[in-house]
Write the structure tokens for this entry.
Amino acid sequence: MEFTLLFAALTGAAAAWLGLRIWPDRLPERAFDQLIGASVTGLAVGRLAAMVDQGINPLTNPGELLIVRGGVATPIAALSFILFLGWTNRRQLSNLDALSPSILLGLAGWQAGCLWRGACLGTASDLPWAVAQPGSDITRHPVEIYAALLLVVGAILVSRLGWRPWLRSGAALTVASLARLATEPMRPSLDGGPVGWYLAGLLAGIGLIALGLLRHRQSATPT
């Protein structure tokens, strides 16, 4: 792992840790350890998926697993992250609601880690805050900073939601998906990016919100 990527990961971890301190209500035990474990699991599974997609056999080339800069299947990594946390908290899934704002803040830190990697810029732009790469006269959107800011705002909004089951989790998934969908057109891409995955995440998030509201209404209805 190159140091710039490591610094970006540490920025994300630090942001998640800060979120746990800002929003400590109802957190499970060893909450930070859970987030780190889920992140490592997601990174490993995402890297494996990218290797298979690139035609690299993980069994015959195990060393390639450590070359994270060679590519990580982000949607698979995110799904693995969620499944790890779900399994860890399977006896009390409400823990996911408590963790949700900190997860969004951690994602914002990871996006802001583009500053370490020199990978913040997207498509060309003439906006006043657009930035040019070193040696270039073309100014570009700081698209990863846009995403980081959206996630920070989302974390704050999610933290202010009530404690209805699945409401915060669904809102966090919705925010993360919307942040990627909104900024994806400003990322240079030959195939448009994994928009289908982001749409699936958006629908899943909305579904969880609806489920939480429905359960709350049912529990509030007198029998």
